[in-house]
Predict the structure.
Amino acid sequence: MKTLNNLKTKNVPNWCPGCGDFGIWTAFKQAADKEGWDNSNTVITAGIGCHGHINNFVALSSFEGLHGRALPVASGIKIANPRLKVFVFTGDGDALSEGGNHFIHTARRNHDLTVILHDNAIYGLTTGQTSPRSPKGFISKSTPQGSFEEPLNPLALAITAGATFVARAYSGDIDYLADLMIEADKHKGFAFIDVLQPCVTFNSMYSHFFYQENTYQIEADFDATNKQAAFDKSLEWDLKKIPVGVFYNVDKPTYEEQIVQIDKVKVEKRDIASLYTKYS
Ligand code: SF4
């Protein structure tokens, strides 16, 4: 079994020192170690961006899709073998801009995936351009006079599109994020975690200090089965009050459960080797 230590690869992470990606990476390995996620039961996919490098730093089967295409790749893997746990790592540009259409429809169909959004509110890999999550007025290489666009709210989008588990965490709170990843994995359906991830090189506004000062844990008695309450909570983003925790959590049939062909042909029990011989 792969563990926290042997999930390491020979590749040394090339993220900038202090990048929030380190927290997400560590939390995932911590969760994998605790739950026994390994190559026999787990696959990860990623899109394009700094987040996508995680494929190189976790010793699991992985697929790095084209920009914005981590979700359709993951959906295909899950349909082909519903027994697998499929984790999707994606960035705010990757998921909400290039892959925005996939995000909406994968959530709407309730594919049984765990989606982890590296939400740094900037395009980091291409050295600092305004992203769909950058706040209005944000100054970057692509908007030197300040962005005049409103930012997109990924939680509100996920809830309204049809996601059945919607949560938010800060990348520096590694233990909580690891627990949230485990809870999201156990959820049947489209589980989405918006991870507030500082880009220490190109986004000085949303720093570690900023998130440590301005986030608060959602109240223990919050009703996460109430869609209206979840939506209202998701709108509660102002510069002094950013909720983290589980916003929405309901049970609905997954996409995979409803595909009759999967039950009929028992895809998950196929002998891949004999199929390969038959069709090659
Ligand atoms: Fe992280 Fe930003 Fe550096 Fe990319 S550019 S590795 S997001 S700090």
